[in-house]
Amino acid sequence: MSNKRMKGTVATRALYYGNTAYPILGKKANDSDHTHKWTVLVRGVNNEDISFWIKKVSFRLHETYPNPQRTIEQPPFEVSETGWGEFEIAIKIYFHAASGEKPVTLYHHLRLHPYEDDGTGQPWPKEKPVTSFNYDEVVFNEPTEAFYQVLAENNALTFQLPTKKSTKEPAVPFTTMVEQEELDRLDKALREVNRQVQRERQRAEAITEESAMYK
Amino acid sequence: MEAVTPFQHAMSGSDIRDILQIGKPTEPAPRKLKQAVEKKPEGISRELYSLIGGAPPIAFIKPNYKAKLSFQQKATPWEFRQFTNPARTDGLVLRHWVKTNDDNDGDYYFAKFNKVINVTDYTNEEYEKHLNDPNWTKEETDYLFALCRNYDLRFVVIADRYEYPGATRSMEDLKERYYGVNQALLRERAASSTDNNQERQTLIQQFSFDKNKEIERKKALEILFTRTPEQIEEEEALFVEARRLEQNDMKLAKEREQLLKFLQTYDIQQTLPSTPGPPSAGIPAQPGLATPGGIGIAGGSGTSPVHDKVNHQYKPVRIKLPWNHLPIHSQYSLKRRRVNQKWIQRRFDACQMLRSALRSTKFTKTCLVEIIEKKEKLTPGVYVRSQKIPPIKPNMIQKVGKVMDELGIPIRPIMPTVQVCSKFEQLQTAIITLLDLKRQVDRQETDLKVKKTQKSKDGTPTPQGPQEGIANR
């Protein structure tokens, strides 16, 4: 059995998940009380194929939907529905048997309604779809040999983040630039916090000195 | 008799008499007088006062009118006077309005703003001797210089207005001729005078004009100016990538050094007979051995040899270091790195501007050292990176959240990659430390205050007991 694990190795895969939604306009809006058409999905960055390491994805929708447990066994791993409310969707990702791994669960809050404005200060235009995506990485610690093989075949032992916003992919803002920005932000925050820690330490010293006088 | 209420018209006696048809002939006369005398309120007319029911208005202020604007002085006389502009050469006489009391201050005020550039002039002899050029006739050169004088050396205008029969000159041509003439003149004239050699040389140098370079420079500027937004984004992305790679390069260099230092010390350790621990058979002490289990580099590009400063040549390095056998002081944390060269190369060809800058840096030739991170024990299994960020105690969540908000960091990182996650964890722990520290210091401060007030109140040393215990932190 190739269930032996590759000791000391780690394989990582990146993906993003979320939903797009746009309001139903026109005649159809009057027929049902569903106001929005939405799609929840799981995709690989760079729009790559993820079916060689993901066997199936199950989306657990709200209980008011018929058959709330929707399992998708082939790419594209997405579910499209109509509705009127926002709720939490449990996305369970099952890996191929070769990996011998249990499925992982991600939670996503379905977004239908836009934020206050779309960044330009204008109220969100009615036709523009609302999106909410999250980036995440799935880390396989000590993958099995079989799984490692699968990954190696697909040149997928590591991944490369896209460097810039590809003009074809709308609203997939997960690039190295974003990562770098985040790193810079975190660096700045860390520096600030450390500075404050220093200040507090100095205060503590001053106070201990002073209290020593009163002993 | 008068029905005077705040909300009704004041009724005079005659009105009532009319309504009630009661005759009261004796009263009207004195009343009328009274009325006439009574009503002379200040500020407003009688009619208005009666309109509002004879009661004083709630907030009545005597209107304060502005005094009538008074002209104390006589108007100043102005004169439509003639004047000449000394900056002019034709003696044109114009007229303008001037105050008669303001004597003519002298020259026309605006004449001093007529700055003239001294375009050098040359004599015919000088031309014959030094300034002859196969492409330029004397007439054309004279014409050019006249234009320069006229348009104050503004070559954009000069190039536009240049109309010499039979000659099509670009701006670079004109500039070249102008600067060439000036340079030659400088050289010849300065040679005759006893000028400071150094200054002269620098001045001559200033007039050197390389036409081809200028054309190239303008072309480059044009390209720069007409970049499309995509290109600009591309360049920015490349800059970011370059910076990242440079950082990686530095880190790699440092790690290489550390690794070599460690290996050397480890080598020494190995030779010492007193080294405890399991036999070294399972440990690849020599860096030349490659062990399986390394994660491949993206794109399959191979590793190139590592050259260290002591001129040892190491083979492609994939070293697995068993941490539990190492002496404590050499347990550095060595992380795994990956650099994809091919991808960068492709991007380079697409963007000319960054080519030279990026080629000059050395990271395209960096080696790739794959060292597996072994600081933590790897438990087999799969997890999602963002879910592995250590959670915060429930009572601290809110406070930490507030601090993060002030710093502009979201509660959960947008892109939880390895680096981002580790930094995020660091930040989290730092914030928790900060909050704990703050709490501690505040407590100390209040204790100190208590002690102070105690002392000032009693004038005696603070009694032993619970306070002492609290102070002794």
UniProtKB/TrEMBL annotation, chain A:
GO cellular component: chromatin; nucleus
Record's keyword annotation contains Coiled coil: yes
Alphabetical keyword list: Coiled coil, Nucleus, Transcription, Transcription regulation
Record carries keyword Iron: no
Coiled coil stretches, renumbered: 176-210
Residue ranges occupied by any YEATS domain in the UniProt entry: 5-154
Cross-referenced Pfam families: YEATS
Subcellular location(s) of the protein: Nucleus
GO annotation, biological process: regulation of DNA-templated transcription
PANTHER family: PROTEIN AF-9 HOMOLOG
Protein name: Protein AF-9 homolog
Species for this entry: Umbelopsis vinacea
From TrEMBL, chain B:
GO biological process, one term: DNA repair
Subcellular location: Nucleus
Bias (Gly residues) ranges: 291-302
Gene3D superfamilies, alphabetized: Homeodomain-like (1.10.10.60)
Signal sequence range: none
Keywords: Chromatin regulator, Nucleus, Transcription, Transcription regulation
Protein name as it appears in the record: SWR1-complex protein 4
